[in-house]
Design a protein that fits this description.
The chain has 232 residues and is α/β, with parallel strands linked by helices. The protein has a single domain (2-231), classed as NAD(P)-binding Rossmann-like Domain (Rossmann fold, 3-Layer(aba) Sandwich). Helices cover 36% and strands 25% of the residues. It contains 9 helices and 9 strands. It is globular, with a radius of gyration of 17 Å.
């Protein structure tokens, strides 16, 4: 809950600083996602990063998020124009401890959406499920999830890597390319990441690549790169 509150405070305080990232994300999503009837968003708290221009493409919006503040945040950033259906539930786990792709599949089967978006949630899994990462096979779960998603139209934007601005030695590009064979070491070498970084472990997941990652100045003192991936 504390991490959610920090994110909400940051999203409100540094809204102007986020604008270049938000507009780049909007362009990327609009280039790759066509308008359709039903959209399901996993991680509604991150709708701070999704624009009305993008949401206007959909007739029905469904939001799943563990965070009880998700409906409040959605209205704060998007007003009352949209009437999404909210489900304050875990989309990755039945018990809140062990990741299970069947939980995600059950939700998708229930709603049968035309488009799915994981909104800045995949990169937070190492934080939300710390015990899982210590005891379970993360790669096996990722492979199972990939099989669930391949038959659907899915997009995900998620934290790839983050670091402090004070540690940056060179100007960082607004966009970087993620190749299928990349790992955090090869990316750090190609794009001169600082020595001290936080790896969000998404490169170990089976997302479609090559992909891009967009620079996001989260606060005046921190930079994130957010990967954007698509199943079509």
């Amino acid at each position: 809950m504390q991490s959610h509150l920090i994110y909400h405070y940051t999203s409100l305080r540094h809204r102007k600083l986020w604008q270049p990232f938000i507009l780049n994300l909007e362009k990327t999503l609009l280039r790759n996602i066509a308008s359709s009837n039903k959209l399901i968003i996993f991680g509604g708290s991150a709708c701070a990063c999704i624009t009305n221009k993008f949401l206007d493409q959909f007739h029905e919006i469904i939001i799943y998020d563990k965070d009880p503040m998700a409906p409040v945040l959605f209205r704060a950033f998007h007003g009352l124009k949209y009437k999404p259906k909210y489900f304050i539930e875990d989309v990755f786990s039945f018990d809140g401890i062990r990741l299970d792709s069947k939980r995600t599949q059950n939700i998708l089967d229930l709603h049968n959406p035309d488009q799915v978006i994981f909104a800045n949630v995949i990169g937070q899994l190492p934080i939300y499920y710390k015990n899982f990462f210590k005891t379970q096979n993360y790669v096996a779960w990722s492979e199972d999830l990939s099989r669930v998603l391949q038959a659907r139209r899915v997009a995900s934007f998620h934290d790839l890597v983050s670091f402090k601005k004070k540690d940056v030695l060179n100007k960082m590009p607004d966009q970087i390319i993620i190749d299928p064979k990349d790992n955090i070491t090869t990316l750090a070498d190609k794009y001169t990441f600082p020595q001290t970084i936080f790896d969000h472990l998404v490169l170990e997941q089976k997302w479609p690549r090559p992909s891009i990652a967009l620079k996001w100045e989260l606060t005046p003192s921190s930079i994130h790169y957010v990967e954007v991936c698509f199943y079509k």
